[in-house]
Amino acid sequence: MASKKAIPEALQITSEIHQKTYLVNGELREWKGENSQVISTISSTDEYAHTILGSIPDMGEKEAIEALDAALGAYNQGQGIWPTMKVKDRIECMETFVKKMEEKREEVVKLLMWEIGKSMPDSYKEFDRTVEYIYDTIEDYKQLDRNSAKFSKHDGVYAHIRRGPLGVVLCLGPYNYPLNETFALLIPAIIMGNTTIFKPAKHGVLLITPLLEAFQSSFPKGVVNILFGRGRAVAAPIMKTGKVDVLALIGNSKSANALQDQHPKSNRLRLVLGLEAKNPAIILPDADLDLTINECIAGTLSFNGQRCTALKVVYVHEDVKDQFLKRFSEKVDALKFGNPWDEGAKLTPLPEPGKPDYIQELLDDAKAKGAKVKNKKGGKRSDNYIWPAVLYPVTKDMRVYEEEQFGPIIPVVSFMDIEEPLNDMAESNYGQQVSLFGKDVYTLSPLIDTLANLVCRVNLNSSCQRGPDVYPFTGRKDSAQSTLSVHDALRSFSVRTFVAFKDNELNNETIEQLLEAKVSNFLSTDYIL
Ligand code: G3H
Asked: Which of 409, 405, 459 is nearest to 283 (CA)?
């Protein structure tokens, strides 16, 4: 239980934040309607009670359509200031934004800790990683532009090929990375010349509010529009109009499918989706167990397992099963639970008030079907937590095998024949990543060859993760659509578009004049420094 004394002074909640404005068409409009309370499951008092952090507007269809109209207006069928602006000028706007964002580091990090219970080091990391992502995106876009600042010629036809925006992008991010993952969608969408509507995740909402002014003052009106409220109330009406060109969502496939279904012309809708996963660890008999156990702790329990890339099922070979279970269970119980700012806290309060009950359901179901809890503290409840249970043996009829737990519970399955985990992966609905632990190259090689076709990242003797953000982040089956990374996201949010002309005197002269006059923002051979 948290004691108020243990909360560092600078991190205490001394006043609530009641967000009364939202950003539409370059204006911070005042909200006069209903609000929803924002609470933290972290207690500020010795006697446990959730902490009230403030409130956010509970918006509906009217404001959603206002935001859509603003985004459509700023895009203006491709004629808007933003989509036709010189790349160099768009980059300048983004540089202005990121500098203003950096000034809000402490405010945003404090809210990250309170709203989603992320540990202090991980909260700072989320902020800094996002800032770095923006700078890397700027650099990559400059390079993309430099590579396009030329003409090709084939079969007597010249071409000046660039990447152009797609239109209006609706961006929805997840609560586990409310800043980083949302911005990993929003930033490339904006910089490529699209106009956007963005609704923060269900938790981790207030932390966006210190950035509203930075968005407002860095970009032309209507380029970034920020709404608050439930997805059903604001995102669905926007999709129904059929005027959204890209749905960019990191979350679960149920929401993605429901929103996609609202769009009357699915062929016109581009999808950039990062969805759920059930990444397995496969531990071979010759695995280095010290390293494997450390990687499996990080993989299963970083941020309490609330990561799409978390290891959500552990396959261990029968020969090393007993040793692994014993040592892994001891390590799980030795982890420190505490509030995000507590020194060394690896396990922290769960931000969803109902999550401990859900994890309990998975645990009870598995126990009723024959699984045992292998660690002493497994399943122990406290006010805002349930201790991670190491469950073995887990079988396919258990809910914890099938469902993406997205929380602290670790199903372990043993195998004799490597075909068993491989078949399970092939049958699974998911295909994001795998962690493979072992040493013998003759065993590893064919496995790597197969696994690379079942998922999109094979982590060798390493836990699964998204980063570094320059690497491709994607998945197969129900796990993703499109690829994100600093480099790939710029492509996901744009389309190749070009000017072509036959090689003749008239055209060559016209193009020469066009380049000399420097009047086209698209047709240009300028090199951005
Ligand atoms: O929730 C899924 C995130 O993309 C995971 O990112 O692997 O860097 O924690 P991460």
From this structure: 459
The secondary structure of 53-91 as a DSSP string is EEEEE---HHHHHHHHHHHHHHHGGGTSHHHHS-HHHHH
- What are the tens digits of pLDDT across the range 390-440? 999 999 999 999 999 999 999 999 999 999 999 999 999 999 999 999 999
Per-residue pLDDT tens over the stretch 70-87:
999 999 999 999 999 999
Q: How far apart are CA 275 and CA 434, in angstroms?
A: 16
Strand 157-165 with 494-502, pairing: antiparallel
CA of residue 327 to ligand 1 center, whole Å? 26
pLDDT at 6: 86
Alpha-helical (H) ranges within 219-354 are: 231-240, 253-262, 289-301, 318-334
Say if residue 174's pLDDT is above 80: yes
Give the Cα separation of 108 and 114 in Å (integer): 10
Non-local (6+) Cβ contacts of 85 within 8 A are 193, 521
Q: Which two tokens stand for residue 293?
A: 């156990």
Pocket residues: Cβ below 6 A from ligand 1: 176-177, 181, 307-309, 465-467
Give mean pLDDT, residues 333-340: 98
